[in-house]
């Protein structure tokens, strides 16, 4: 069900003139003195002629700008493409993220072209890998439900050629392999998020998880708990939230347990395949994007698969908490009390605060296995968008993990910002009838939600498991126009951060 376009990726070091691609992309930077050609592979004569005509062509070099020109006599490529890389300063190399975005934007906008060679300034292996990642993220479209070719988006680019002087370096091959793995993981996450809720519900999500793990079946084990098992074992959060839907909930446990693992990492993902709000019904406009509410589960699944494919020596278990939140005669009511997995009771004051209920089950189950670190990912609160907007995700929790996640995000080029969980907020979740209520102080709602989750993080030998919570409510889903390598709708955000976090765990432990 989760079909993903996987472009062919190759690397060349020289003879750009002879690269048999339909399009050759070169970078244009913005300076105070106007647009400049950044590190052109063209002949000096062609380069200076082009540089001189940039302002006349209306080229500024701003990010996301793409200009198509006819091919030059010296080039095999039929088309020369000028891609904006944003502001540049003489002598200062572009950041990896600027390269990723420029490559992604160009490849995205060149959909319909078969083969694209990217001659952006990628001097090092890391730069070349960033260009490759961006290009793979840009070569994405979701067309599963299109029947009319006329209105469907053009086919994504099928063949990507990276031009880099680092082509012969030994580290290049594994770096390209890593880019390929990240490309697949991010794009598969997007496709899961983009699936309409008519097609993706807990049961079909569980089978999609099995399908996606199939190529790695020697390393990755998938266990699906159905509603009977969940009921029997007391997963009251999932059962309670799923009660209003005709599609019963699932818990999916995905395990990667390599030999000689250096650490044990647990991931928990919010997998609400559609969030109507339940009886605390959302207004129509707020419901329109709520197929994205399983984004956290899609992220932890694909991050685990990428970590397994990379063969990192880290044991990872991902818990996908899958339910559909619907209003009906069988739905949970505001005022109901549920017993979450492990026995703690929650008063459900607002059925739209459902994410924390299914996550409570997941956090307790994950804690039982005594991981070294526990990280959860969720499109948890609208308050995240009020606090940080649509581009910046929040990371909260125990300081050490929180800061390590932030560092991993910075290294991957994803925007995360650390937020506190003040002790003071916990009191607003006090319930008059149960151990805790699912709804508290409205202001700072993102932190209140995190403070609820923290209650369900377990202890090992009396010490709380180091835990971080990633709220990706806004950044998981792009309601606006595409930009950089980011398409409309599902973005796949947080996959790269989790993979980088696992890599950092390995490199810290050697
Ligand atoms: N799934 C939503 C949060 C959300 C909102 C994600 C917008 C992505 C975009 C979540 O279940 C929710 O409804 N949260 C409520 C909590 C409130 C009732 C305490 C919210 O944020 O309004
Ligand atoms: Mn909700
Ligand atoms: Zn939700």
General description of the model:
The two termini are 39 Å apart. The longest helix is centred in the middle third of the chain and has 23 residues, at 172-194. With 510 residues, the protein is α/β, with parallel strands linked by helices. The protein is built from 14 helices and 22 strands. Helix 4 packs antiparallel against helix 9 (295-310) and helix 10 runs parallel beside helix 13 (445-454). The radius of gyration is 24 Å and the shape is elongated. The strands form five sheets. It has an eight-stranded mixed beta sheet with strand order 8-9-11-10-14-20-15-16, sandwiched between helices. Strands 1, 2, 3, 4, 5, 6 and 7 form a seven-stranded mixed beta sheet that branches. The chain binds ligand BES, manganese (II) ion and zinc ion (ZN). Residues 275, 277, 352, 354 line the site of manganese (II) ion.
Discrete helix count: 14
Dominant shape: elongated
Radius of gyration: 24 Å
How much of the residues is beta strand, in percent? 15-25%
Give the secondary structure arrangement, pairings included:
Elements: E1 8-12, E2 23-31, E3 34-38, H1 44-53, E4 66-70, E5 79-87, H2 96-109, E6 115-119, H3 125-138, E7 159-163, H4 172-194, H5 202-213, E8 220-225, H6 227-233, H7 236-242, E9 250-256, E10 264-275, H8 284-287, H9 295-310, E11 315-325, E12 336-339, E13 345-348, H10 355-368, E14 373-378, H11 382-388, E15 393-397, H12 399-412, E16 416-418, E17 436-437, H13 445-454, E18 459-460, E19 463-464, E20 467-471, E21 477-478, E22 489-490, H14 495-509
Parallel strand pairs: 1-7, 2-5, 2-6, 6-7, 10-11, 10-14, 13-17, 14-20, 15-16
Antiparallel strand pairs: 2-3, 4-5, 8-9, 9-11, 12-13, 15-20, 18-19, 21-22
The structure holds ligand BES, manganese (II) ion and zinc ion.
